[in-house]
Amino acid sequence: MMWPVGEDPRWRAVGAACGLVGPAAFVAGWAAVGATTAGYSPARQPISDLARIGAPHRLAMTAALVVYGLCLLCAAPVLGRALGRSLLAAAVALLGVSALGVAAFPLTPAAHSTGDAAHAAFAVTGYLAAAATPLVGAVALRARGERLGAAVSLLAALVAAAALVLALSLTDPGLAQRVGLGVTDLWLMVTAAAVAVGSAGPAPRTALG
């Protein structure tokens, strides 16, 4: 059954709330779990190390990933409808699916396992979706004549893409990964907040602008 996103303000409110809760839970998860894991360096080590099989708080980090993924799947059609771009909905949904895939295939203690290959595939897909999300948003906002929002979104896309490329190429990717994903998560939360503000009336005119 298709959700009546855009027609029913209650559905927009739910989707917008998910767009806020999911990214916030993910960021809070890796920040809190990283801070309580002895010997872990967020500047050097990737987020996936916190959910690695055998990690002391892997269940908490896995739960944050699952909440993130499910919330993005819920928010995707609402954000896409709000900005008038089905491609935005696809990018957000792909990011959500990637998060669920990363959670389903955690890193293993043994290197080069089949599980690690699946994990890497979902992680790279998530990076691509994370960079594409604000980029598609920039195109949507530009088409609506919202130049400031489009410029901010384009900057977010460029920063996210550059940081995530660095994360793939550096030996110590932790900081670059957090910057890249964090920029996209901030973009999602701001956009979801704009949708939430308009959820009591007609579809909101703007996001990030």
Explain what the structure shows.
By secondary structure, the chain is mainly alpha-helical. The chain has one domain. It is 71% helix and 0% strand. The protein has six helices and no strands. It is globular. Residues 1-6 and 200-207 have low confidence and may be disordered.
Mean pLDDT: 90
Q: Based on helices, strands and strand pairing, what is the structural class?
A: mainly alpha
Order of helices and strands: HHHHHH
How many helices in DSSP terms?
Answer: 6
Distance between the termini: 32 Å
Low-pLDDT parts are 1-6, 200-207
Helix content: over 70%
Range of strand content: under 5%
Rg (CA only): 17 Å
In total, how many domains does the architecture comprise?
1
**Main sheet overview:** none
Shape: globular
Count the beta strands. 0
